[in-house]
């Protein structure tokens, strides 16, 4: 796996794809390809993705910004693209106050010894977002940095963007999110001990502790696939959100039931790939009605997952699972 480094630890000189790259969608990969394609001609420059952490709006405006890909997940996605290191620049008010010229001099030249930089044409940087991609090209030229600006990628009448992918996930449209990402949307979580209410209903679930910085899809019940400890993808049904029938006061949770499998999962990392939203949550008059609905959900999930990835290990997208326990 490629390394995650601070600017001080980065291998230099660098050929940099610069931006947030949240989701690593088609448009992002075009910017990255501009760096990796030139790597053969610039053997000394290390193909590098440079992003900021935390998100600038978190620092400047106090806005929580959930990520489609957490840094550890991004490492696994970048490696097959030819990137050799991911560098996260700590974003602070001091960094935000730098002029465009100072940012290039201090960060791109001083810290990263950049020889080549690729950005999208909507890239903004410097105090008050005063610098744009064209300004970067002009300033970079003064320092001997070749800057390539890639046009935005359009899909129909709307550009491909992380916001568009979030909107699809927020509507529970996994098919659209997958189309825009050109890969499955996945997340992972540590299986922690629950209250055993699912088991009492005849549907034991793995309760997942998911990183709070990860963007999750619309609350509801999903057909899904799940993988334990890097093993094969297994059919599952997932509940994401509150439990209005069992405990209306309980906080939102992620619960996964592996279909036709009985495994001891506590303490393991589970990778989940939601396939399709089956229904939104609803309140049932009795536990018996809830159990009957779960059975119907499971049957539909079983049909939807038939032949989808069964027996295939998933691409590792950020989880570092423990060894699987014996069932």
List keywords for this structure.
327 residues; alpha/beta; Rossmann fold; Elongation Factor Tu (Ef-tu), domain 3; 2 domains; six-stranded parallel beta sheet; 10 helices; 16 strands; 28% helix; 26% strand; disordered C terminus; FMN adenylyltransferase activity; multifunctional enzyme; FMN; nucleotidyltransferase
How would you explain this protein's 3D organization?
The protein has 327 residues and is of the alpha/beta class. The chain has two domains: 4-155, 3-Layer(aba) Sandwich (Rossmann fold), CATH 3.40.50.620; 186-305, Riboflavin kinase-like (Elongation Factor Tu (Ef-tu), domain 3). The protein is built from ten helices and 16 strands. A six-stranded parallel β-sheet has the order 1-4-3-2-5-8, with helices on both faces. Strand 6 (124-125) and strand 7 form a beta hairpin. Helix 7 (162-170) runs antiparallel to helix 8 (174-181). The two termini are 29 Å apart. The model is unreliable at 309-327 (pLDDT under 50).
Task: Offer a quick outline of the entry.
The protein is an alpha/beta fold and 327 residues long.
List the helices and strands and how they pair.
Elements: E1 4-5, E2 14-18, H1 26-36, E3 46-53, H2 56-61, H3 71-78, E4 85-90, H4 93-96, H5 100-111, E5 114-120, E6 124-125, E7 131-132, H6 133-142, E8 146-150, E9 154-155, E10 158-159, H7 162-170, H8 174-181, E11 187-192, H9 197-200, E12 206-209, E13 220-228, E14 233-241, E15 253-258, E16 269-279, H10 287-305
Parallel strand pairs: 1-4, 2-3, 2-5, 3-4, 5-8
Antiparallel strand pairs: 6-7, 9-10, 11-12, 11-16, 12-15, 13-14, 13-16, 14-15
């Amino acid at each position: 796996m490629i390394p995650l480094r601070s600017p001080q630890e980065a291998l230099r000189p660098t050929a940099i794809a610069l931006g947030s790259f949240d989701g690593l969608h088609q448009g992002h990969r075009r910017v990255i390809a501009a760096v990796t394609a030139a790597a053969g001609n610039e053997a000394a420059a290390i193909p590098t993705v440079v992003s900021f952490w935390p998100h600038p709006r978190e620092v400047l405006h106090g806005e929580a910004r959930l990520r489609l890909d957490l840094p550890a997940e991004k490492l696994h996605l970048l490696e097959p693209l030819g990137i050799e290191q991911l560098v996260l620049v700590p974003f602070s008010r001091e960094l935000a106050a730098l002029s465009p010229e100072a940012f290039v001099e201090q960060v791109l030249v001083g810290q990263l010894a950049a020889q080549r930089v690729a950005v999208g044409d909507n890239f903004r940087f410097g105090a008050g977002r005063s610098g744009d991609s064209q300004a970067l090209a002009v300033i970079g030229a003064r320092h001997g940095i070749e800057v390539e600006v890639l046009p935005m990628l359009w899909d129909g009448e709307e550009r491909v963007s992380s916001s568009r992918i979030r909107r699809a996930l927020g509507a529970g449209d996994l098919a659209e999110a997958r189309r825009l990402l050109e890969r499955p949307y996945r997340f992972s979580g540590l299986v922690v001990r629950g209250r055993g209410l699912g088991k009492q209903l005849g549907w034991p679930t793995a309760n997942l502790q998911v990183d709070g910085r990860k963007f999750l899809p619309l609350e509801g019940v999903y057909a899904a696939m799940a993988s334990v400890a890097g093993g094969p993808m297994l059919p599952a049904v997932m509940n994401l959100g509150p439990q209005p029938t069992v405990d209306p006061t309980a906080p939102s949770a992620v619960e996964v039931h592996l279909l036709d499998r009985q495994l001891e999962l506590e303490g393991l990392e589970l990778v989940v790939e939601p396939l399709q939203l089956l229904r939104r949550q609803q309140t049932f008059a009795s536990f018996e009605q809830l159990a009957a609905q779960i059975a119907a959900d499971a049957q539909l999930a079983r049909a939807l997952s038939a032949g989808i990835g069964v027996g295939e290990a998933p691409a590792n997208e950020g989880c570092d699972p423990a060894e699987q326990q014996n069932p």
